[in-house]
Amino acid sequence: MEKVGKYELVREIGRGATSIVYLGSDPFTQRAVAVKVAFPGILKDSRRGRLYTHLFLNEAALIGKLSHPHVVQTYDAVVDDHLCYIVMEYVAGGTLETACSAGRLLPVERVVEIIFKCSRALDFAFRAGITHRDIKPANILFASTNPNDDDIKISDFGAAIIGSPDHTLVLGIGSPAYMSPQQVKDQALDHQTDIYSLGVVMYQLLTGQLPFQARNSYDLIYQIINAEPRRPSALRKDIPASLDAIVARAMSKKLESRYTSWTEFSHDLAQVFRSNRFNLPADQMADFEKFDTLRSFTFFADFSDVEIWEVVRFSQWSRVSPGTVIITDGIAGDCFYFLAEGELKVLKNGLILDLLTSGECFGEMAVIGKTLSRRGADIIALTDAQLVKVTGSALQDSSESCRMHFYQSFLAVLSARLTSANVRLVSF
């Protein structure tokens, strides 16, 4: 079996203008990896060698810097005059290109979820000082081969700007169809160029075609700078006007009219999903809607996006009707809850002690102590309610940073309850 460095190459899985990507195996970690190997002598190209070197060094510089569930991880790299390769996380699901043709379009709600996850991943990169600069369907991967799984991972940061906004080495990088007006005009770029490009990807996923159809690259660049595309809903009838507005704002030619932050972009995606619901049953929530719900809670204010996604994955979401007993006084517990929607009452010996509203945590004493504790009150639904359940075992299996933030927030909750209790005692 052929090897590159310590990595065994199993088979070719992709090929581009400058490199071949292989499915590889890391003999030390026993995990599958993707190994991108530059064509021999590519960095010595007399005309483009500096650009190719820049691309490989850019990816090499990201080792350990972008640890996010929706970004392909870079594990290792070698860049020298004789051998250049990048070792990355292997992602099996293929690219979003498979969902960009008219006969293979995804349901609208799945497109919204995919774009939301992309927006949060690119916001994470932006906060790390990184602008991708080559967002397109070929650089966004489905994390799984399961056709119903909408988890994605953004790949290929070779063209990225790392650090301050820049315009160096822009020409020749990226795919013209997805470039912002600022990029095709060789202007200084920041995260708003990625916002534009993701808007183009969203347009293509929704409609099966690019926003601008051109005979040649000169015509395409002219349209990007001067023309307005047709509304997505004019090409697909089940697209609501609110999504037309999001795509239009993301793709605005003027920076002052385009989304100025990823937070604004992802917020609007979540809002349009909630307002339309896309005919989904009320108890079915997309991952990104769960993320947005948790992010709105004060309890999770100090959690990173990565930790919020972690909670989305190990929490259990459900709906209950009025009168449902959620916690019974005196019964041993091994989980705690958040109230996402509705209202609950807390009772002791039949007397109401408190009312719980959206965003509040309860039942955490069952997992804070070293031994299994018994519940200290009854908690019953007053209205239709949505609950987020976290088991003690899931909390213990979570990452150290996530678990630390849970305990810090538990302390804040307990402190607030003690303060409230003291105020009530003083008032008697």
How would the blueprint of this fold be written?
Elements: E1 3-4, E2 7-15, E3 19-26, E4 31-38, H1 49-60, E5 74-79, E6 84-89, H2 108-127, E7 130-131, E8 140-142, E9 152-154, E10 161-162, H3 181-184, H4 191-207, H5 217-226, H6 241-250, H7 262-276, H8 287-295, H9 305-314, E11 316-320, E12 325-327, E13 335-341, E14 344-348, E15 351-356, E16 361-362, H10 365-368, E17 378-381, E18 385-391, H11 392-397, H12 400-427
Antiparallel strand pairs: 1-2, 2-3, 3-4, 4-6, 5-6, 7-10, 8-9, 11-18, 12-17, 13-16, 13-18, 14-15, 14-17
Helix pairs in contact: 2-4, 2-7, 4-6, 6-7, 8-9
Short structural summary:
ATP binds at residue 36. The protein is 34% helix and 21% strand.
